[in-house]
Amino acid sequence: MNFIHAAGASKNGQIAAKLVYDYFIKNVDDTYNITLKDLEDVDVYQVWHCYILGNEKWLLSTTYPDGMYYEVTYNKAKDEWYFDAYHKIKNIKVSSDIIDNLI
Fold this sequence. Notes:
Layout lengths: L2 E2 L6 H17 L8 H6 L2 E9 L2 E8 L5 E8 L4 E8 L8 H7 L1
């Protein structure tokens, strides 16, 4: 597993990526008949990261085409980690005409 990132990975960023990878390995959707070699080639990448109000948060995904993305939060004050896994259901284009009619 490689952690792909744009600006370097902190220790906490590496922990977040490892949480995602470990979850992925245990819960991988085998629709694509994935092999052990394929698993070794799966990378975790950071989509977004911020630190706000004492919490550090990452949105991450993998290079595996399963439509999953993950949110990892670290609460520094309580020294607690939270992990959420999401599955993308749809991506629908919304035209500006529809948006204009909403207002």
